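re: ur msg from earlier - yeah i can do the zinc ion complex, just paste it... oh wait u already did. ok heres what im feeding in:
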Amino acid sequence: MTLILALDFGGTKLAAATINAGSKQWLGYERRLSPTNANADTDLEIMRSVINSLLKGAKPDAIGVSFGGPVDATTGKVRLSHHVLGWENVPLRNLLEEEFGVPAGVDNDANVAALGEHRFGAGQGYDSLFYITVSTGVGGGWILNSQPWRGSEGMAGEIGHMVVDPNGPVCLCGKRGCVERLASGPYMAQDVREVLRNEPQRHREPRGEILRELVGDNLELITGKVVSEAAAAGDNLAQEILYRASWALGVGIGNVANLINPQRFVLGGGVMKAGEDFWEVLQRVARETALPEVNFEIVPAALGDDAPLWGAVALAEDVLH
Ligand SMILES: [Zn+2]
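and the outut:
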């Protein structure tokens, strides 16, 4: 038996699992929330305690790691985390290899999730796919010729910062109208809040009534998920914002299809729960954006929130061979 340890350092969540190579069943599985004031040291400390409780003294044969931020996959060194302080230039692969005395593979979450979906999920049997995660951010990972394709410096797949509306609102990256600026949960929530704050409730045609109701008029409680719920319940403002998000993703996907022509787009993250209208608009806009001769499918991720963990298993299997 070959024991694999899979780790997922997300921005807000930490997860770990153990599995025998070749199996489809976790031996152990644990998920923890990362504290709000987390830094790299506290994340590592929590992860160590999760690992100890999973391994119970056993020694893994290989370790695979999904990290929520840019990583140099060739050295296994984390460049930084946009959500958690203190991750600048942490040699995560070396740390784990020294601590456990076994080989490890480390890559960023979108690349790892793409690998997971390719080997165990919605991408099985396809030799080209683009995985897109849409949640707090928007990221992407490539599988081309059945292999991860990371680009010359590991920066391939940044669909989140593809500009789809040059006159749109300013994104954290400094540009306007990026896919992430229009389609990520926190930005959708921010835009909805701004409209609700600036629009008096006695407006002739009030917008966002259901949104206000859902959060008891505490606008701080609005999240991407709340926007989806309000849209499904018929809220006009939420529907407008959600439509713009699906439109932005559709334009991004259509352009990527024209450029690289992958067989499948696999979508994971919070967007999986965005509702039927969202998917319908996304499919239609992507189709309208791509050339008629360019064929592709857009499908939901099969592994859900566990795609990075399954990808970490695949990474670990690969470092053994
Ligand atoms: Zn951007």
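cool cool. The chain has two domains: 3-121+304-320, 159-300. ping me if u need the other ligands too
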